[in-house]
Amino acid sequence: MKVIHVVRQFSPAIGGLENFVFDLIKAQLAQGIDASVVTLDRRYDSGEALAPSERIQGIRVERIPFFGSYKYPIAPKVLSTIREADIVHVHAIDFFVDYLALTHFIHKKPMVVSTHGGFFHTKFAKNLKKAYFNTITRASLTRSRRIVACSENDQNLFATLNPRKTQLIENGVNTAKFYSGVPQHFTKQMLFIGRFSDNKRIDTLIKWFVEIVQHDPQFHLVIAGKDWDNNLKMLASLVNQHLLTSNIHFKLEATENELSELVANSSFIVSASEYEGFGMTIIEGMAGGLIPIMSNIESFQKIHQSTGCGWIVDFEKSGSALHWLEQFNQRDDILELKRTSIAEAQRYSWPFVSQQFTQVYEDVLA
Prior knowledge:
- By secondary structure, the chain is of the alpha/beta class.
- It has helices at residues 16-30, 95-102, 104-107, 126-141, 152-158, 202-215, 232-241, 256-264, 280-287, 298-307, 320-329, 334-345, 350-365; strands at residues 2-6, 34-40, 53-56, 59-64, 87-91, 111-114, 146-149, 166-168, 189-193, 220-225, 248-252, 268-271, 291-295, 311-313.
- The protein has 13 helices and 14 strands.
- The strands form two sheets. An eight-stranded mixed sheet has the order 3-4-2-1-5-6-7-8. It has a six-stranded parallel sheet with strand order 11-10-9-12-13-14, with helices on both faces.
- Strand 13 (291-295), helix 10 (298-307) and strand 14 form a beta-alpha-beta unit.
């Protein structure tokens, strides 16, 4: 079976979507599926031009030119890259879904679409997005043989368009990514990993953490990732404003090895995000022995309910930091909580999730 994955950004770009596709393809190759990827030829964050084709850890990557906004990149050359596919698996709701649906009468390839949160990650242009979703997206998805929702939130949303085609396969996670053995020590360090994008609400996280340090100055927060939506200057200014440069540290463009070291030296994975399709980085952190501290959005609540790990926090509520600190200080089993996080994260391992996608492909081709 030859599966071509179509996604707007891929390695060496870093992010939840990129990691998802990378890990899914690696698991599929291990299962004997002929899987490859088609993606765009420039990185959004740096504008760096990338090679037209290469192999990345055994994965065949073909890159195509595009123009227009990074939020809706226009890349009609995708049509010539999928000729040999048995299945075309499109990731995220963007140009590729619309264009491959519009040209379906030409390529005639069975399409599977993974939702990845759709395009509702922020409240920007909310009404316009709703109108687009209920018209253009609805029409485009009629050409997809299966719509794979990455979370219960996505399943509820996309089932309003086509309940018969929509099914839930929650994201797989590379549970070995940050694992370095059974935790033997505890630190008062929290870690955020991800893009510095508007929906991550890192500004809210920083303001919450200010109160933590006021009551316990031994706590540290590391914010690791890529500047996105040009937020770094504002976030650094916020840290300086509160005189917390010795407690809050930014780590930009961290390598996998550097991230692994940060995980090993932390005890908590934290996110004040206002929207996540799933929460992959939280699970990756848990698999590395970090205890999650999460905002009260639906996807994080699902993780908390499924695993029983960590805390759900209203980061914008006055006094919530002190309330969390009081709960933390009552615990004398932090190392055990770290070990439980590792164990509970295994339910999201890639071999199990990849097999569910294989079943989808087989059903589509039957």
